[in-house]
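Q: What structure does this chain adopt?
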Amino acid sequence: MTDTGLLYHYTDVGGMLGVVQNRTLWATDTNFLNDTQERTFANSALEEAARLAKVPGFDEEVMADQLYGRAVLGFAQSRLRNLYVVCFSAHSDLLGLWRAYGKDQGYAIGFDKEALEKLPSPWQDETPPTLREVTYGASDELRDEIRDYLSSLNETPTAHPGVMAQYSTWLEEKLATVKHPAFADERETRLVYGSIQLEDLSPDDEGKSVVRFRRGKFSVVPYLEVKWPREALKKIVIGPGAHWETRMAGLQRLLACHGLPDVRVEASTMPLRE
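A:
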């Protein structure tokens, strides 16, 4: 099920409590996402799409070697370590995503898309985040997007540092929003926060850094705290499982106690077995 204008962040009960009580989302470093092979696949898919794109003014050798050569991709990959994303789905009730959180544990938190696009950066003097739909595989859509983008650059010498930097920045965001076609049913959109400069990683006068850390499955995981306004949260869907009436009553009380009584609460219609 999809709702026009809403995007859903799937999480477990602990994550839901953090989102509501602290009024924050966590933007995770792209090197520490759950799918450890995602970045490798994105690299291959993007390179393949770039080679297949036919751009007026660029021959195949220029496409492959100059614009997607080691220098450009290496620059993009080196900056990617400081890229952070929050993941959303267009679906409010998708069985495949519920399975990731187990029976009786999942919640899909629905945010207004326009409100997400207006969220500020967690650090000062940086460009705001961008909301980008995920592309699945080296698709025609990805190839066409590369062609259109490169066509806009064909009046400028490709070796110019400004062009290389501009293209690398674009590649950086694309590398963070390409996934394997097996995940296409998720219809994912990501809120992407651009590269953080080294000075932003250092603690401020109070000893605090904009980058936080949490425990992950294999290591500590860097993330950013993204504050959202009250009007951004529109709906929460309770994942499949037993005792949904009790879970709904608890969630409604939680929302009321945190100034969010108008948020719609619904129960999943999906079956989920042990």
